Amino acid sequence: MTPKRTGRPAATRRLAACTALTLSVTAGALLAAPAPAFADEPPAPRTAVEQPARDAAQLPRLDLPRPEVNRGAFSAQDEGAPLAEPRSDVDGDGWSDMVLQSLDGTVYVDTGAESHEVTYYLSGESGTQSYKDVFTAAGLQPNGPVHFTLTAAGRLSAYTNDLYYPSNFWSGHGWQIYNKVFSPGDLTADGIGDVLARTHAGDLYLYPGTTSTSSPLGSRVKVGSGWGQFDQLVGMNDVNNDAVADLFARNTAGELFFYSGTGEATRPFKDRVKVGSGWNIFNTLFSIDDLDEDGNADLLARAYNGDLHQYSSTGTGAFLPRVKLGSGWNTVSRFANGSSLPSWGKDEMIGLDTHGTLYYYYDLNNGRFAPRDQASQDGGFKGARLSYFSSLDDDGYADLFEVYNGHLYNFNHSSGSIHDVGGGWGVYNTLVGLGDLSGDGKGDIVARDGSGVLYLYRGYGNGSGFAAKQRIGSGWGQFNVLVGAGDVSGDGRADLIARAKDGTLYLYQGTGVASAPFKAKKLIGSGWGQYTRLAAPGDMNGDGRADLVARTSGGTLYRYDSDGKGGFKPRAGIGTGWNTYTGLY
User: Fold this and answer.
1) In contact, 369 and 15? CB cutoff 8 Å
2) Helix (H, G, I), strand (E, B) or coil at 112
3) Staple 133 to which of 25, 150, 531, 551, CB 3.0 to 4.6 Å?
4) How far apart are CA 292 and CA 216, in angstroms?
């Protein structure tokens, strides 16, 4: 399948080039500043250029098995046994199809015969929306699976089935209270697919599916606590031939557990059974139900290098030895009903070189960057005070900002032109866009002034402005670097990384509460003073967690993958020559 889009949506995909400015960036600073809005001319002259594409490479194809006739009402393994309805049979041939998102957020359906770009529209929607997650559920509507889309701001929408243009029939808000929402299949044994949702604290809720056109989901039922111990949850549909959905869960140690479905809404799973260890060699697990025609769902696993493997079910909650299906699957951003927490808001990094030229790098989900693209005219950003925030609107792309003459300018505003947020931002020496810190699903920023006081500015979700600042606390002048973009700790909330002047690195875990957005600091480690730059490019390795990059004075760049426990795995070299950049954002 070949992606059609070549970059961010036209209305929101603008960077800009500028002439030399009179302001300069202090080494290690990550830019600053909010304030009220005053009319002013933008830094001039400016020439807007399109942001380079994230997905230049072709997406791989999976050779899905397709019989000449539908599989019917029996299993090849156990004739007469019931079969669970496929969750994503979009083309109606009786077999599940693969639904996925490319690196730029475009949704595709691969039916095995051909692939289709799928477009979801709500009333009045412009088509620039990027979804945090997409999943499907069977049995809710008569004409095929229901497609669900989830936005970062917490809008869950349901669409009736269509290969190209699913039709919206319901939307609900407030789903940002969960870090994971998906359909494992039919958990209540009524023939209708259900939805599971996990809170950031680890509580698990069941939303029973309905056939109502007014609402596809019933009232939630709490089914357990302690599910925060798992970094991946994968709904399998049915793996033991009883037509009830089952679940597999993996922890950060790489242990995989099987939860067999009971068919009871209040207690949907039996006690867990350990499947094995070593499953942390994969950055995501998912299932598109039964691939080998035995009536039991099979597990697919993507390795960090992009190789895709199949584990055929034995019908008992265990698997046969894996079989490699192909390579290059790192170009998939999300698989529908994928097991990892969805990463959203930033998957790129910008470098400002010594000449004042901007270069753009996007993540490849395998721990590497795509080759750089020039993102400004030569020397256009000489001396600029820049910041690169996790997305402040609904397009999913990071937003480039500059402080100039005390005003804050957004170069990626949805209007397509440079937007003046307002004046008064020159009082800040550091500005960081981490993602949602207040719990409303909209991107926020923090700003530090010269006296070491830190403030929270809540975003409106449009990149045009912020709510009145909220004082977080003082004493933040002890840090020479504040950085972050997304979830490091593994709970789905945005976190802040802070480096003290003695080179000690700390984690400030997000709470989702605006009045106190961070927990007490947690020590990550010492020796980080060896690096001249730290930057947060989002999720580089495709596991749903935010990673960190660090540059030495000699120009070597290292990647630190999040371990999902509030720290980082041992560093991995990315390359040399990175001291060509005065700033990495």
Assistant:
1) no
2) coil
3) 150
4) 30
The chain-wide mean pLDDT, for the chain, equals 88
The token pair that represents 64 in the structure block = 């899905």
Cα–Cα distance for residue pair 555/190, rounded to 1 Å: 60
Using omega within 30 degrees of 0 as the cis cutoff, is the peptide bond preceding 45 cis? yes
Separation between Cα atoms, residue 51 and residue 55, nearest integer Å: 12
DSSP class of residue 367 equals: S
Dist. CA 402–CA 408, nearest whole Å = 6
pLDDT, tens digit, 9 for 90 and up, residues 9-60:
333 333 333 332 222 222 233 333 333 333 345 555 445 545 677 764 578 8
Distances (CA, A) of 122 to 9, 126, 128: 17, 9, 11
Considering only CA atoms, which of 317, 295, 337, 300 is closest in space to residue 138? Answer: 337
Name the maximum alpha-carbon separation found in the chain. Answer: 78
Short-list 354, 284, 308, 328, CA closest to 577? 354
DSSP label at 521?
A: P
Residues in the chain: 585
pLDDT digits (tens, 9 = 90+) for 257-282: 999 999 999 999 999 999 999 999 99
Total Cβ atoms within 10 A of residue 355: 12
CA distance 135 to 113: 21
Q: Please, where are the H alpha helices in 35-93?
A: none
| Angstrom distance (rounded) from CA 3 to CA 554 | 38
Global confidence as pTM: 0.90
Name the region of 542 (left: φ>0; alpha: ψ -120 to 50; beta: rest). left
CB 95 within 8 A of CB 298: no
Reading across the β-sheet that carries 221-224, which strands appear in turn? 178-185, 194-199, 204-207, 221-224
Element (H, E) at 258: strand 256-259
DSSP state at residue 568: B
